[in-house]
Amino acid sequence: MTTTNLDTVDSRRRQRLDTVQRSLKSRHARERRFQGMGLFAVITALVLVTILFASILMRGVPAFWQATLYLDVHLDPEVIQVDERPVRQAAESPAQFRERELVWLNQLGMVNWNGLIDEALKAHLPGEIESRQTRDLRALVASGERFALRDRVMENPGLIGQTISVKMLASADVDVWLKGNIDRSLADSRQQLSAQTREWADYLKEQGVIRNSFSTALFLNTDSRSSPASAGLAGAFMGSLFMMLIVIALTVPLGVASAIYLEEFAPRNRLTDLIEININNLAAVPSIVFGLLGAAIFVGYLGLPLSAPLVGGLVLTLMTLPTIIIATRAALRSIPPSIRQAALGIGASRVQTVFHHVLPLALPGILTGSILGVAQALGETAPLLLIGMNAFVANVPSSPMDQATALPVQIYLWQGNELRNFFEARTSAAIIVLLGLMLSLNAVAIWLRKKFETRW
Amino acid sequence: MTVSVTVPMAMNKRTLESRNVKMSARGVKVFYGENEALHGIDIDILENEVIAFIGPSGCGKSTFLRCLNRMNDTIAGARVEGQIALDGNDIYDPSLDVVLLRAQVGIVFQKPNPFPKSIYENIAYGPRLHGLARRRAELDDIVESSLRRAGLWDEVKDRLDQPGTGLSGGQQQRLCIARTIAVSPEVILMDEPCSALDPIATGKIEQLIDELSESYTIVMVTHNMQQAARVAHKTAFFHLGDLVEMGDTDDIFTNPREQRTHDYITGRFG
Amino acid sequence: MNLVLIATVLIVMALAYQIGLSRSRAVANGGVRLHSRPGYYGVLVALWCGLPALLLFGVWLLLQDAIIEMLVVNQLPPELAGLSEREMQALMRRIGALASGQGLAGEVEAYEIAAAQQMTRLESMGRLAMFASMAVLAVVGLVLAQRRISPQLRARNHVERVITALLALSSGVAILTTVGIVLSLLGEAVHFFSYISPAEFFFGTVWNPRFSSAGSGGQGQFGLLPLLWGTVMISVIALLVAIPLGLMTAIYMAEYAPPWLRSVAKPVIEVLAGIPTIVYGFFALIVIGPFLSGLGDLIGINIRATSALTAGLVMGIMIIPFVSSLSDDIITQVPKSLRDGALGLGATKSEMIRQVVLPAALPGIVGAFLLAASRAIGETMIVVLAAGNNPVLHANPFEAVSTITVTIVNQLTGDMDFSSPQSLVAFALGLTLFVITLGLNVIALVVVRKYRQQYE
């Protein structure tokens, strides 16, 4: 090389230094802008999520407390004219006794329980209340409460003639009115309650007869159409519980077994390639397609009952299976080959290696993946709509074959209820319950992962 | 097959004494978290010389090399103490721009790491980054001259638009060297540039280093003592985070002052 | 009943295990070395005893109903032979209900009672026969296996072969699921296309499934295009929101965020990805919809509260965590050597990301986007709640639209009568949805896999 070459190198260096230096300012500005954009994206996402949670909490949390009437009801024997509760005689057959009992129950059912409640209310209200105002009066109390009163007497007929203190849910409209969830300045014609009832409600609230108390109904009752104030999640919860038990019982063994086969035993060939693509694809198939599968095969072809948690559980099982297989395979793959070689090296068979050494080490990962899969199944709605789990169910299901609904479906049903300003809050409360369950499942999964996290 | 890598060393060892100090380090310590990896390194690197760092693995030679253009900044938990200067300016001075520093002190890594782009784009990347070419023709010039200097032009001139990852290992490494030259840095750091290459490719790279030493200061790390002996003017021996000894390559290999150096080059440990 | 039976088999298997165990010990007492440990002989005997019986049980359950039905049909009075398939099905349902002791609506014919009695008889006979053959199989298996126990018997290998076969079988479930999906969708869709021609369905521009007086033979009009259009519109809006935000979030998380932020944010993002879509739907309905509509009033555009925009926006929010965690995985897979190469040349961090990391990660990121698109297209609950269900072709994102998924829910919810085109169309829509998402998923999976292999 020549000196000219060296000179060009030197001059190029000088020139280059200048150029670089000149460009630096704008390049660093671009760098800051880019980083700013990243931060902006993160913050936007966080803000959106915060708004989501905040809006649901703001609407939902108050719904855990409900306007409740604290009344003293006189169980007037004049009104409750029933015989003694029948006791089974020695000579009587069960059928005969049942018949007598039914007669007695019928009598109880005929009692004017509303009248008793009316009297109890009147005791707290000022002035004379005419019988034409009875409708306004009854609008105060959730319509289901008269049955609660009846059931109480049925359980303990000795109460007749006494005055008992009772907690009664106020009607949904009263709850809405007192919480200010409806515009108080709306004209009478657009209010759900008559002016008289509204006035009474305010008065009773002032007197402390209506108080906001924790809504056990939300947790202990099933859905109710006639008495929205007492609608609860118990039925949906049991439905979800049955489905989750089915999902756990089926997906975990099946998923883990197939993952073990694919990861540890299956030969690598086109077939297993196909299976792998198939499983990955299944994990991304829209959930509603699984609903169609359930409707066509489980309900249509196999003739399993509509709205049954059994069918829901099976559909969700098929939906969750790929997730669990993928998670388990990842867990198995993270176990270093050296462990397998060590076990094989001392004469263990492949099956023994997998079940004695690899599987125990992969267990935390498998558990975490399974929990996340089940949590996902718990929140799934769409496929359940297609197998009839959106039916109105008034009883708590006692087996997976009974009609039932599920927590997310209950949310769907409530958000569509025409009593918007009551059910908006109720729905939010249900969402809080569902999210609470899911987040605790997630928390358990994350905790497990942290606790057992191993680096190889 | 014999490869001609015999470079007339004597001719290259021009008057080293008259050269300026290009980079200098004083009391450089490096910590990874709590762990002190280097225990105070003092060294002067002269302009246009080839200096090789040798030593057993884990001795800190690569760590020190990466300090010289602040590549250690990218490692979480790494911390550097002491002073390193380029042309007398502290490169760890907060006011100094690391982008500018790296334009002056280029680096070639152990494993060839061409970008998944065409050969042309690989070379053009640096000049584009720094805005060194105003026109396409200028850029073409830079690409061609860099490839020529890296001795790769004849092999790739017909397929500049093909991906750089398609070249052989040795070609990839020369591509990476060309990529570094394209920015025309003053110092080129090489971190075991031949450890992933076969002997033929290694020979070519060594020849290239020798040619480049005319216009660049080259600092290389190698685990191969013969390589150091073949290409380096000076050699520094690192051991357990200390710079044990540094001197002219011939002296280090024939007449080491320290016992540890002697043990290492005669193969007692390492 | 069946549960009891299975439990019995399991107990018998436990007994067989004990027998095998003691027998193998007895053999070993003679001082001979057994090939396998005694436990394996026990398991082998148990498997021989239990598996054939269980297999028989499964097959029997599958076939019994069909066989009994055939026998019953053969016994029906000859004048019923002319019944159509559907009438026959209804009749069999009545007979089945009679046989299982449920009440029936309407008159019960004498031949129905006879058939029901015959059915009951056959069922109890079948059950007995099943018990007997299961018992015989179990005993035979037990005796045979127990006889075979000898020191040379490679019990462990036999047991392991059975275990491997069971594992392989369970990985077949995932395949069966896909087959089930394809068969059920295809079967019912073909049924649907016997009412409505495929051309009319795929290229029709009017969706009006109600019986219409004008038009094609009173069947209503089943044009897919309005639904497909709505689906595409909402998905595009969702991706426009999710891709920039999700990608930038991923970049920030992978490249800029300090480790502590990463360790907090990653689980949070995972949890967000698990929030049920019904919750997002509700959020769209009560927060985003009214907000957008108010915003529209403010700037003088008419935006419906339930519109393509509302649904798309919220769906975008839902997909952000999905996009960001997929992209994050892919970005962090770009090898450090490439980053070092760019930084070593003097690139700033953003230059390195934009010019080296992102191009290198592009195939993977595109794959992630495709998966996100497939997710958006298959999403149901958000659109059911927030898109407004208006299956009309129009290009205004501020108006209500309908999508494929919404229509599936609408057409199939409630009644399970698979005989009218109105409900069968759900399967044709499901098939369309499945094919679209399958295409997207497979392309995405292949692209991502290629990408992974490149850097492994």
Automatic annotation (TrEMBL), chain A:
The chain crosses the membrane at residues 37-58, 233-262, 282-304, 310-332, 353-375, 429-448. It comes from the Bacteria. GO terms for molecular function: phosphate transmembrane transporter activity. One of its GO terms (cellular component) is plasma membrane. InterPro entries: DUF3333, MetI-like, MetI-like_sf, Phosphate_PstA. It is found in: Cell inner membrane; Cell membrane. Residues 237-443 form the ABC transmembrane type-1 domain. It is a multi-pass membrane protein. Keywords: Cell membrane, Membrane, Transmembrane, Transmembrane helix, Transport. Gene3D superfamilies: MetI-like. GO terms for biological process: phosphate ion transmembrane transport. Belongs to the binding-protein-dependent transport system permease family. CysTW subfamily. This is Phosphate transport system permease protein PstA. It comes from Billgrantia pellis.
UniProtKB/TrEMBL annotation, chain C:
Part of the binding-protein-dependent transport system for phosphate; probably responsible for the translocation of the substrate across the membrane. Pfam families: BPD_transp_1, DUF3708. PANTHER family: PHOSPHATE TRANSPORT SYSTEM PERMEASE, PHOSPHATE TRANSPORT SYSTEM PERMEASE PROTEIN. Keywords: Cell inner membrane, Cell membrane, Membrane, Phosphate transport, Transmembrane, Transmembrane helix, Transport. Gene3D superfamilies: MetI-like. It comes from the Bacteria. This is Phosphate transport system permease protein. It comes from Billgrantia pellis. Belongs to the binding-protein-dependent transport system permease family. CysTW subfamily.
